[in-house]
């Protein structure tokens, strides 16, 4: 017998999972290149949402124009984040410095500090309460398909996220800059020795990850109807969990695990209260660490 509610929850889970996937890719790209976790990534998600709201309130342009501006804000935020939180701690290019555990830990704390500072600044500027997106920009138009009713935002998020993921794969495998990113992620010292511009590649990686995060936050804001300064924390944690489950440096693994998290959380609400759904993700993380210490898709890095 066809269960309309269950099928609708599956669509909801896929949409949520793709949002996690866009953020998890940002985590994975930066970890693959620098071998460090960027804990400010959730704030890039939040900044994208607030940048979109400010542009809408100031100029009320078409949605596509707002989206382009959000992408631009994400790109600039990625450059600034790398310049402020990461580059000062990466002063040397020798192999010992590149593999230094102390530098990795200092960079992790630096990104965490930037995360806290940015979140508090936005809270002081806009307040900690939710900010409402203007009605005409919301992606809440009901779409009825037989016994099922969806919001237009679910299809927009699904389609846009899928397009972004495909474009990213094309970039990484079929462009010179993308091959440089993969080469640095595979062997940073080797890439340095063959003449790849490491600094340029690292900045490009931050720009890509930040743009994906900013767009994710903006689209979710249009779908939910409101945004707030701490909105990036929960999504960032879920994206981090997806990255760890996927094997830390596997983009396909991060995507698959993000979809698993989104689906499991959505379907779980049919059997357990909404407030307990987050435990599903953390339970899956614990199981992964117990039975797949290197991640479900973990393994040796690919040579390019």
UniProtKB/TrEMBL annotation:
CDD domains: TM_PBP1_LivH_like. InterPro entries: ABC_transp_permease (IPR001851), BCAA_transport_permease (IPR052157). One of its GO terms (molecular function) is L-isoleucine transmembrane transporter activity. It is a multi-pass membrane protein. Its main location: membrane. The chain crosses the membrane at residues 17-37, 66-86, 147-172, 202-228, 240-263, 275-297. GO terms for cellular component: plasma membrane. One of its GO terms (biological process) is L-isoleucine import across plasma membrane. Keywords: Amino-acid transport, Cell inner membrane, Cell membrane, Membrane, Transmembrane, Transmembrane helix, Transport. It is found in: Cell inner membrane. Belongs to the binding-protein-dependent transport system permease family. LivHM subfamily. This is Amino acid/amide ABC transporter membrane protein 1 (HAAT family). The lineage of its organism: Bacteria, Pseudomonadati, Pseudomonadota, Gammaproteobacteria, Enterobacterales.
């Amino acid at each position: 017998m066809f269960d309309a509610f269950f099928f609708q929850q599956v669509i909801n889970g896929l949409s949520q999972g793709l949002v996690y996937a866009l953020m998890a890719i940002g985590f994975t790209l930066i970890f693959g290149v620098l071998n460090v976790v960027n804990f400010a990534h959730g704030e890039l998600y939040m900044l994208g949402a607030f940048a979109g709201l400010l542009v809408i309130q100031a100029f009320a342009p078409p949605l596509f124009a707002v989206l382009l501006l959000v992408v631009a804000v994400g790109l600039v935020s990625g450059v600034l984040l790398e310049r402020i939180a990461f580059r000062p701690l990466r002063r040397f290019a020798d192999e010992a410095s590149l593999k230094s555990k102390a530098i990795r830990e200092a960079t992790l704390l630096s990104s965490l500090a930037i995360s806290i500072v940015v979140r508090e600044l936005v809270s002081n500027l806009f307040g900690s309460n939710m900010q409402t997106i203007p009605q005409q920009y919301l992606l809440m138009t009901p779409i009825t398909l037989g016994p099922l009713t969806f919001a237009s935002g679910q299809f927009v998020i699904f389609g846009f996220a899928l397009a972004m993921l495909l474009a990213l794969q094309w970039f990484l495998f079929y462009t010179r800059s993308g091959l440089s990113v993969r080469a640095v992620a595979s062997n940073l010292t080797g890439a340095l020795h063959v003449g790849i511009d490491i600094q340029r590649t690292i900045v490009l990686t931050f720009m890509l990850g930040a743009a994906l995060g900013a767009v994710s936050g903006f689209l979710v804001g249009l779908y939910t109807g409101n945004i707030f300064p701490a909105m990036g924390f929960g999504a960032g944690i879920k994206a981090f969990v997806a990255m760890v489950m996927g094997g830390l440096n596997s983009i396909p693994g991060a995507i698959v695990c993000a979809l698993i998290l989104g689906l499991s959380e959505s379907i779980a609400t049919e059997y357990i209260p909404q407030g307990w759904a987050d435990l599903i993700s953390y339970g899956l993380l614990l199981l992964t660490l117990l039975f797949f210490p290197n991640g479900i898709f973990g393994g040796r890095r690919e040579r390019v």
